[in-house]
Amino acid sequence: MIAYIKGVLREILDESIIVEVNGIGYHIICPNPFIFQTSLNKEIKVYTYHHVREDAELLYGFQTQDEKKLFMQLISVSGIGPKGAIGIMANIDIAQFVAAIEREDAKYLTSFPGVGKKTSRQMILDLKGKLTSMFSLSTPDMSKDVAVQGSKDQYQEAKAALAALGYTDKEIKTVMPYIQKENIQETDAIIRKALTLFAKK
């Protein structure tokens, strides 16, 4: 089991990063590779999960231990493999996700890519009661739930609008981490900020 990799970030690809350690480049699949953008050609530490199957050995990587732990819980759910779990992780807020599991919010869970009603029910069945103590998180109140869900919807709307303007998914993913750090909430403001960042590239 490879617990983590510490090395120099050499490349950022659409779904992965390349980290060089002692002359060896490790290909690591990540939920959002572009979150590492500011660390290009710098030393980083990536928490990893080493997935072995008959036809391949794959490394999945995360910024934090909590992200890795949640990924491990997701792949323990019947019907969710590493690829599906990475898709969920790319759009996740851990505190919000834990709250949704605890209140059995299937509607929230089915908002993730590849998660239908059957999978959401299985996630609740397999994970309820396990996550709150694992992450030492307090459950947000309902007003906060609504606010976070609203923020997520606004980012989705902004991404769709930028795509309609002709920007590629890769370009959009490149700027979103910067916008999220500034906690911009309004759809129009997200779009304006993204256009400003595109103009600087």
From TrEMBL:
Keyword annotations from UniProtKB, A to Z:
ATP-binding, Cytoplasm, DNA damage, DNA recombination, DNA repair, DNA-binding, Helicase, Hydrolase, Nucleotide-binding
Q: What is its main location?
A: cytoplasm
Asked whether the keyword Mitochondrion is assigned, the reply is: no
Tell me which positions the record assigns to the signal sequence. Answer: none
Enumerate the Gene Ontology biological process terms.
DNA recombination; DNA repair
Question: GO CC terms on record?
Answer: cytoplasm; Holliday junction helicase complex; Holliday junction resolvase complex
Location comes to: Cytoplasm
Q: Which domain of life is it from?
A: Bacteria
Which InterPro entries does the UniProt entry name for this protein? DNA_helicase_Holl-junc_RuvA_I (IPR013849), NA-bd_OB-fold (IPR012340), RuvA (IPR000085), RuvA_2-like (IPR010994), RuvA_C (IPR011114), RuvA_C_sf (IPR036267)
Q: What is an example of a GO molecular function annotated in this UniProt entry? A: four-way junction DNA binding
What this protein is reported to do is described as: The RuvA-RuvB-RuvC complex processes Holliday junction (HJ) DNA during genetic recombination and DNA repair, while the RuvA-RuvB complex plays an important role in the rescue of blocked DNA replication forks via replication fork reversal (RFR). RuvA specifically binds to HJ cruciform DNA, conferring on it an open structure. The RuvB hexamer acts as an ATP-dependent pump, pulling dsDNA into and through the RuvAB complex. HJ branch migration allows RuvC to scan DNA until it finds its consensus sequence, where it cleaves and resolves the cruciform DNA.
Self-association state and partner proteins as the record states: Homotetramer. Forms an RuvA(8)-RuvB(12)-Holliday junction (HJ) complex. HJ DNA is sandwiched between 2 RuvA tetramers; dsDNA enters through RuvA and exits via RuvB. An RuvB hexamer assembles on each DNA strand where it exits the tetramer. Each RuvB hexamer is contacted by two RuvA subunits (via domain III) on 2 adjacent RuvB subunits; this complex drives branch migration. In the full resolvosome a probable DNA-RuvA(4)-RuvB(12)-RuvC(2) complex forms which resolves the HJ.
Task: Return the domain comment text from this UniProt entry.
Answer: Has three domains with a flexible linker between the domains II and III and assumes an 'L' shape. Domain III is highly mobile and contacts RuvB.
Annotated family:
Belongs to the RuvA family.
> What protein does this entry describe?
Holliday junction branch migration complex subunit RuvA
Q: Which organism is it from?
A: Cerasibacillus quisquiliarum
